[in-house]
Write a structure and sequence with these properties.
The chain contains 17 helices and ten strands. The chain has 396 residues and is an alpha/beta fold. Bound molecules: iron/sulfur cluster.
């Protein structure tokens, strides 16, 4: 609890603020539901919630106003994702949301207390909003199923709920695949900026698909759309791995569209975390992020053998994976004050020396500006081109 917040003069006492409202969270009723805005997923969650019988309140894409709202009401020490999420919730509540569905966090960093603190602040601000926090099913299966049941306002048979979830999952997989392809194409586009309109049209086609067959068709169309963007022949772009904390990696507005910026500089990026890969790894205990037989955590182990919270170990493991795969460099995206990424940064310095891999760490907070970030990226990219030229490769 941030000092001076709960129970402060005129506000409700701490005991009132922290009293759980389990009965309300597990009550099945039609709600006005919102959720965090993350990458390409909001439209998928909107569709799922509407099919379950709710009024889905899609929050605006995080912007300056979202961040100002979050900063205004967050403790000073909070990290950037916390502030953006709080701002998003406040905007959604202003749009009529009475319930927010979000994911929980595990591990020894602040993410584990995010939702409790968000709820305290919302209640202190006078919002009696239900926060339904979905922890990974492996942590508490009964709790998870209870929350899914509470969200089934249309009282659909389980088989149909599972079908809807599977359709959403299929869409999310396709969206991640389309995004990956867009990074490949953008780095090679002949006319600067020509990939983005094709990418947006590809996303639209996937969003509109309502059945598994239609999603497959939309996936093919999306691929065709992107592959028809004219590209430079024989061009060998720089390859940069993007590692760091999940929220600032996945949500472009939180990282000032760094992948688009680099793509338009002729750089191909590969990101360490996508929503579907993360969900699979953290919820279903499947190790999808690996190279050959070695998992990312195994790769990180000689440098960072402990789970330090957040995605610190992933950051180190992926950087090593990118070094071994011949990438030209790595960019780390770290929310300001994010402890796991601060630890990872100090480890990356050793990794960088051992693997001769240039890396750039970008600290993100409400003060970070696009112009400053562009300048740093241009300098880093320039350095990588010169390094490649020295090694015998040429800029095409
Ligand atoms: S991983 Fe970093 S940014 Fe995310 S909650 Fe933990 S400390 Fe904050």
């Amino acid at each position: 609890v941030p000092p001076g917040r709960a129970g402060k003069e005129g506000g409700p006492a701490l005991s009132v603020l922290v009293r759980p409202k389990w009965h309300r969270r597990f009550t099945r009723r039609r709600r006005a539901v919102s959720f965090p805005y993350l990458g390409t997923s909001p439209e998928v969650f909107r569709e799922l919630l509407a099919d379950l019988g709710h009024e889905a309140v899609v929050p605006p894409r995080p912007n300056r106003r979202t961040l100002s709202l979050g900063v205004e009401h967050s403790p000073e020490f909070a990290c950037l994702p916390f502030k953006i999420l709080l701002g998003t919730y406040l905007e959604a509540i202003a749009m009529g949301a009475d319930t927010i569905v979000t994911s929980g966090g595990v591990g020894p960093c602040r993410a584990g207390q995010y939702s409790q603190l968000h709820e305290l602040i919302l209640r202190e601000l006078g919002h009696d909003t239900d926060l339904i926090v979905c922890e990974p099913p492996r942590a508490d299966l009964i709790d998870f199923l209870g929350k899914v049941a509470a969200l089934n306002a249309n009282n659909l048979p389980y088989s149909q709920v599972i079908r809807l979830i599977k359709r959403s999952w299929q869409k999310l997989l396709v969206l991640d695949e389309v995004e990956r392809l867009s990074h490949w194409v953008r780095a090679r586009e002949l006319v600067r900026g020509s990939t983005t309109p094709a990418y947006l049209e590809a996303l639209r086609q996937v969003y509109e698909a309502r059945t598994p067959e239609a999603i497959d068709l939309a996936k093919n169309r999306a691929g065709t759309l992107l592959r028809t963007v004219p590209t430079k022949e024989g061009y060998q772009p720089l390859k940069i791995g993007i590692v760091g904390e999940i929220y600032v990696l996945i949500e472009p507005s939180a990282n000032l569209e760094i992948e688009e910026v680099l793509g338009e500089m002729g750089v191909e990026t590969e990101r360490s975390i996508y929503l579907t890969g993360y969900t699979r790894d953290s919820n279903l205990l499947m190790k999808t992020r690996h190279t050959g037989q070695t998992s990312v955590k195994d790769l990180a182990a000689p440098y960072l053998g402990e789970m330090i919270g957040g995605h610190g170990q992933d950051t180190v493991g992926h950087a090593i994976m990118y070094a071994r795969s011949g990438f030209d460099g790595v960019v780390q995206l770290a929310p300001f004050t994010c402890i796991p990424e601060i630890v990872a940064k100090s480890v990356l310095e050793r990794v960088s020396t051992d693997f001769s891999l240039p890396f750039l760490s970008v600290s993100l907070d409400e003060q970070t500006g696009r112009a400053g970030l562009m300048t740093r990226m241009e300098a880093f990219v320039d350095l990588l081109w010169r390094r490649r030229a020295r090694a015998g490769g040429a800029k095409a």
